[in-house]
Structure formats: C-alpha cells, structure tokens
Design goal:
The complex is a heterodimer of chains A (130) and B (139). Chain A has helices at residues 2-9, 26-38, 46-51, 81-84, 94-107, and strands spanning 14-16, 55-63, 68-79, 116-127. Chain A is α+β, with helices and mostly antiparallel strands and 130 residues long. Chain A folds into two domains: 2-23 and 51-127, no CATH class; 24-50, no CATH class. A four-stranded antiparallel β-sheet of chain A has the order 1-2-3-4. The radius of gyration of chain A is 18 Å and the shape is elongated. Chain B has 139 residues and is an alpha+beta fold. Chain B has a single domain (25-134), classed as Lipocalin (Beta Barrel). Chain B has helices spanning 2-22, 29-32, 59-62, and strands at residues 34-37, 43-46, 51-57, 72-83, 86-93, 103-110, 117-121, 129-134. In chain B, a hairpin with a 2-residue loop joins strand 4 (72-83) and strand 5. Chain B starts with a helix and ends in a 5-residue tail after the last strand. The chains are: A alpha+beta (130), B alpha+beta (139). The interface between A and B is medium-sized, with 38 and 32 residues.
Chain lengths: 130, 139
C-alpha cells in the first residue's frame, strides 16, 4: 500500500520502511506474530516470529501502464540474545537496554546464543493502480 | 481469586506506567516543527510549510548502506503519521546524487509538546538511539 501510494504520487520510488514490534501497539503485534509458537505454526508467520523487528529497504525498478510495478525488497536483521528476550513495551526502553540487553549481549558475545545475521532479498510484482 | 485479580490489576498498572514512560501521547505538527540536531553534525530542519532540509544524516541509520558510507544531505517534504506502532515524521527526499529516484524514510517521534523527541534506532529496535535534539530558536 505504501509503495503503491508512492508510485501514484510520483515518488520517491526508493526507500526504507522498517518493521517494529515495540511501542504501545507492539503488544498486539506480539500476540499476532508469536501466536505461531502456541499453535505450532497454524497461525501467524514463523519467519516474522523469528525476525521480530527488521530493516526493510525497497526500490521500484519498473512501472508499467497496466497498473503493475516491479519492486526489489531487501531485509536485514541481526538476532541477539537481547532481541530474543524483549518483553513488550518495557523491553524497548533505554532502561532495559542499559541494564538488561547490553549485559546479556556482552555475556553471549561468542558461541551459542551470540549474534547471527539474516539477509533476505526478493523481487515482487505489485499492483499500484486498481 | 482476589489475589489473581490483584495480580492482573498490578500488571495493568505497571504496563500503564511504562506505556506512559515510553510516550503514548499524540504529537502534533507543531511539536515536530523546528531544527533538530545531533553532535555528530546530523541536522533536520522541519518547516511549517511542509518542507524539510536534512544535513549529514548517517546513511546506515536513515537510508541504506553501511556506517562507513558518507552521510546524506538533501531536502523534500514531510508528513506526520502513525506507522508500525510509532508516530513518525515521514521524509520524502527529492532526487539526490546518491538516490536519483529520491528516497523515502522517516524519523520516529516519542512524546509531545515540550517532551517531544526525534530518533531512529541505530541497529536493533530497543537498542542504541540516534537522537536528534531540538535546537533553541532565535529570539
């Protein structure tokens, strides 16, 4: 929807639109994204459950007169012990980062539960004009 | 039963407190209009006419690329809206040498009125913040 609106408005056709799970609305996202664990994958999205919040970049590479457009997406995510243990709301405060997240990350600097990174790229055709 | 209700109420109270701490208030355009800067040279001027000017914003935090890439300077139009759980100043950059198609990005907003803050997460959400501080206006 965001990209379709950008195309309709004449741009910009490249951008960044990160996905967040913190903040007040994050509680609902937690319930939706993490419901997959309670239902053994029957609800929610397992990939999103693992990623949590992530960095998303997009670039429109082609706009056609038939109302479609080709868009390249790239996602980057780093998974740390701190990101796996964020509770909603309080887990995204500076207090939590300073007193819980940073010490945890320092403790698990290497070996099991240390940081891993994920890069995902794909190209998709979207409909920007109904 | 009474103990359970007590625990639920206590949990709701704690959540309410932290909700207040992280800033659930609704910012207005007036709250974000002004000059915002960081000591590393990054600056964002949000103008009342719907335009903005940005100087030396780190590419890896606001755009794409890596920390070692040179920062970005440009201008465009802005809009305040809620997206992905946060109030955000959506920034539509006009064409730049680095981005010939322009670039769409944002800066997050917490609080309102005098307590308004603009920031972006440097890496993970919940980690270090790239915080822009409101600059005093000339008398």
């Amino acid at each position: 929807m965001l990209i379709a609106n950008q195309i309709a408005a004449g741009g910009p056709l490249q951008g960044r639109n990160d996905y967040y799970v913190g903040g007040v609305d994050g509680v609902g996202k937690y319930l939706k994204d993490y419901s997959t664990l309670l239902t053994f994958g029957q609800t929610g999205n397992l990939a999103v459950t693992y990623l949590g919040s992530y960095r998303l970049n997009f670039a429109v590479t082609g706009v056609l007169d038939d109302g479609t457009a080709t868009v390249e997406f790239s996602v980057y995510n780093s998974s740390r012990i701190s990101s796996a243990t964020h509770p909603p709301i309080i887990g995204y405060t500076e207090w939590w980062d300073r007193n819980v997240a940073v010490p945890l990350n320092n403790f698990f600097q290497s070996g099991p539960l240390s940081m891993t990174e994920q890069y995902i790229e794909w190209t998709e055709t979207i409909r920007w004009r109904p | 039963m009474a103990a359970m209700i007590g625990r639920v109420l206590a949990t709701m109270g704690i959540l309410s407190l932290f909700t207040h701490l992280v800033g659930c208030s609704t910012p207005t355009d007036e709250d974000v209009i002004g000059v915002w800067a960081k000591e590393d040279g990054g600056q964002l001027s949000v103008n009342a006419d719907g335009t903005f000017a940005a100087q030396s914003l780190p590419r890896d935090v606001f755009f794409d690329g890596h920390r070692s890439d040179p920062p970005i300077t440009g201008s465009g139009t802005w809009k305040l809206e809620k997206a992905s759980g946060y109030w955000q100043v959506r920034l539509s950059f006009r064409q730049m040498p680095e981005y010939p198609q322009g670039f769409f990005t944002s800066v997050l907003v917490v609080g309102s009125g005098d307590s308004t803050e603009l920031f972006r997460w440097v890496e993970d959400e919940g980690g270090e913040r790239y915080r822009l501080t409101r600059q005093p206006t000339a008398p």
